Amino acid sequence: MQVTADHAEAHIAIRTDLGAIFVSLELSRSKWLVTSISPGTGEKMSKFNVDAGDIPALLARFGDLQRKAEARTRQGFRIISIQEAGLDGFRIHRILEREGVESYIVDPASIATSRRRRRAKTDRIDGEALVRALLAYKRGEPRVCAMLRVPTPEDEDRRRAVRERKALLNERIRHVNRIKGLLFNQGISRYEPLNRDRRERLETLVTGDGRRLPTALKSQISRELDRLELLIKQIGEVEETRNAMLATAEKSASEPALLLKLKGIGPEFAAVLWSEGLSRHFDNRRQVAAYAGLAPTPWQSGQISHEQGVSKSGNPRLRATLVQLAWLWVRHQPTSALTAWFKARVAQNGGRQKKSAIVALARKLLVALWKYVNAGIVIEGAVARP
Predict the structure, then answer these.
(1) What values do phi and psi take at 103, rounded to 5?
(2) pTM for this structure?
(3) Sign of the CA dihedral 326, 328, 333, 334?
(4) Backbone phi, then psi, for 279, in 5-degree steps?
(5) CA distance 343 to 2
(6) ∠ CA 120-123-125 to the nearest 5 degrees?
(7) Distance (Å, rounded) from C-alpha 241 to C-alpha 255?
(8) Are 106 and 84 in contact (CB under 8 A)?
(9) Is 295:364 a contact under the CB 8 Å cutoff?
């Protein structure tokens, strides 16, 4: 009995020493589940639902929690909240910070879960797990979870241009493939919708069996061309916005201008590298590689030890751009130390495993660019643009 009592007192001491009310938010489209644990309530967690998007009701609930805790303990307590990164973005976090609430956004994949084959999963269970993770994080336990570094609204808006361009390019590819598929069904395989003479060529097309294009098919392709031309125009507008942003950076001699000085890095790569990764703060090179999803993933247990490849858990846009840039780096920077390392690595493997070597080069290149932009350390053997 004495052991049980000491165990309960130890749990209560951990909570009250932190001197705060811990709250988790489970956000959905219809309801927000508020799970809280307050000083003076033992191990009991209270739960409360508010309508999705009802910020005044949420803040009123926080006020009730503070008043009840003060009535129980005769002390005032601050509120510390946690929520998962999701569809709502950072707006709720910014509102809570503005109202004096210490708010955190956690990567949901970083929270430990049960490894049972059939594990229970409800909003109530998830809410309690978030509160426990927040308690452990505030106690200073290492590697409990990964808290996000919330970007400023300006940094968040700066990424819109490169992301919109990528979305427009994917949509353009779909329209081009649809047009080519419709024509290939009629035996026509040498029509390029992106050429400037696409309208004139459409009028002269003849099917594989010698007929003119059917009227309905020609009308459908013409409407597809209308949407395609609108996409081409919008892509041009987005690229003009991106180029204007880079031109401003060159005039002010800021970090994106340093990327443009290197041979092999054009406006699109410079914009993606800066807005998606290098504009953030990192403490060391391991954090840089992990953010891009290029960190190694070992599997070691007893005598079993092998590498599973890169984690792929970081920013997919940054990772894809770095792999493309790594191939271009080998071509445009043949005298750099990184290119020499890549060629020696491939030669050591007898010319095989180029894909795994290029991914390793992408990781090294990202770290080198991070040092170059933030500390001014020039990449060994890299050639600048004339």
Answers:
(1) -115, 145
(2) 0.81
(3) positive
(4) -80, -10
(5) 68
(6) 50
(7) 18
(8) yes
(9) no
